[in-house]
Amino acid sequence: MVDRISALADHYHQGKSGILGEDGTAGVILEDIKAITLYQVTAWPDSIEAVAGQVASTVGCQQAPGPCVAEVGEQGVALRIEPLKWWLYGVAANVIDAEQGSMLDISHSRTQIRITGPEAISFLNRHLSLDLREQSFPVGSVASTATHHVGVTLWYSDKGYELFIPRGFALSLWEGLVESATQFGLEVV
User: Fold this and answer.
1) In the beta sheet, which residues pair with residue 70?
2) How confident is the model at residue 52 (pLDDT cuts 50, 70, 90)?
3) What residue segments make up the domains of the chain, in order of their start?
4) Could you tell me if 33 and 113 are in contact, meaning their C-beta atoms sit under 8 angstroms apart?
5) What is the pTM of this model?
6) Which tens digits make up the pLDDT trace of 66-124?
7) Which end of the chain is more exposed for a tag (fewer CB within 10 A), N or C?
8) Which residues on adjacent β-strands are paired with residue 165?
9) pLDDT tens profile 1-44
10) CB 147 within 8 A of CB 128
11) Sign of the CA dihedral with 62 first, then 66, 72, and 76 last
């Protein structure tokens, strides 16, 4: 099996920079999550219930998530990214009958960046036109949006904000994220 190399590999420098707190803490923490497993499952309009059942079964949860929501199961996570599409995170998809929908391994096509820290929301609001306040975007929320004319997906997991960027744009967006995070104090882990 071929080892995956992050799109950020040669440009990923751990450490702190920017305006840090008096105690040396950073307001924004960025992390490149490597070697992700990510499958896209698409249902046809007349088979959405059947495919939703397969999605739920694959990740080990009671039901597939509704629009703009993630459901954490025993084997993985299902993210509802569009009305007829789910992403399966951390688990491989089962084969979908072509009469019901389609399945595609998109693991290599995305770079995942985890964003945490006390200034994560302020930082993300500089890049995404989303209301990230807790009452509008609680843990488990998913949104397809854009930054700098690039379509991205944001999932608010229990570990932080998970930003999925198309691999071909990952380096240029990473450089912009790093540059703008320094105003909050940046730590790359």
Assistant:
1) 79
2) very high
3) 9-34+109-188, 38-105
4) yes
5) 0.94
6) 999 999 999 999 999 999 999 999 999 888 999 999 999 999 999 999 999 999 999 99
7) N
8) 111
9) 567 788 998 888 999 999 999 999 999 999 999 989 999 999 99
10) yes
11) positive
Structure tokens at 140: 């488990």
User: Within a 10 A sphere around the Cβ of 157, how many other Cβ atoms?
Assistant: 17
Q: Which residues contact 127 (CB under 8 A, 6 or more apart)?
A: 147, 148, 176, 177, 180
How wide is the angle at C-alpha 6 spanned by C-alphas 5 and 8, nearest 5°? 135
Query: Which string of DSSP letters, residue by residue, matches 87-139?
Result: EEESSPPPPPPTTTEEEEE-GGGEEEEEEESTTHHHHHTTT--S--STTTS-T
Contact at 8 Å (CB) between 48 and 84? yes
Quote the pLDDT of residue 167. 96
pLDDT in tens, 115-147: 999 999 999 999 999 999 999 999 999 999 999
> What is the C-alpha to C-alpha distance for residues 43 and 65, in angstroms, rounded to an integer?
14
**pLDDT at residue 4 in the model:** 79
User: From CA 21, how far away is CA 180, in angstroms rounded?
Assistant: 16
Instruction: Reply yes or no on domain 9-34+109-188 having CATH 3.90.780.10.
Output: no
